[in-house]
Amino acid sequence: MNGNQSATDLTTVLAGDHRELDRLCTELELGQGSPENRKDLADHLIAELVRHSVAEEPYLDGDGDLAEADRLMRQLEGAGPQETRFERLLGGLIRAVRRHVREEGAAAVREIGRTCSPDRQAELGREVLETREAAPTLPHPDLADRVPQADQLWPGPGFVDRARAALRAPASG
């Protein structure tokens, strides 16, 4: 395995995601900033979590913390930062993310390490990174003719589905 393989190894990519998700949760838990800034940060957490879940879901059973997080993300995408439910939903999302990072995510990383050769892990890691790079420029098939491309991944109602669809779309090469 060359030095570049370890940098793009899928287990390394997912572990880096876990660190970033944990960092965003900590920043939100500090409770600083205006409600609008907290909403922006919550939207950033949602985007990162969707990116991560698309990469990791083939290695998870689908009934765990990310399923709970998905339900909460969908409720949060329609909640304004001034609404009383916003902080309650955000707290639930943070708890689900923390459980995932601590339990389910660590198990997925171990399973990948156990079942995939180093070369396969490197290949999968590169594929995840390439998909992430391409995702913002891929139009959602249901929106491409109606929504300007720059606005397709803008947070708001349907954000979780649009982000997931963009990450799952085949990269054109």
Q: How many strand units?
A: 0
Based on helices, strands and strand pairing, what is the structural class? mainly alpha
- Reading the helices and strands in chain order gives HHHHHHH
What shape does the CA trace take? Answer: elongated
Q: Please bin the fraction of helical residues.
A: 55-70%
- The portion of residues forming beta strands comes to under 5%
For the CA atoms, what is the radius of gyration? 17 Å
| First-to-last CA distance | 26 Å
Low-pLDDT stretches? 137-154
Multimer state: single chain
For the largest beta-sheet, the strand count, sense and barrel status come to:
none
Q: Count of helices? A: 7
Mean pLDDT: 78
Short description:
With 173 residues, the chain is mainly α.
Detailed description of the structure:
This protein has seven helices and no strands. By secondary structure, the protein is mainly alpha-helical. Helix 2 runs antiparallel to helix 5 (84-115). The protein is elongated and about 50 Å long. The two termini are 26 Å apart. Residues 137-154 have low confidence and may be disordered.
Descriptive key words:
mainly alpha; elongated; 69% helix
How does the SSE layout of this entry go?
Elements lengths: L2 H6 L1 H20 L5 H22 L8 H12 L7 H32 L2 H17 L24 H10 L5
Helix pairs in contact: 2-3, 2-5, 2-6, 3-4, 3-7, 4-5
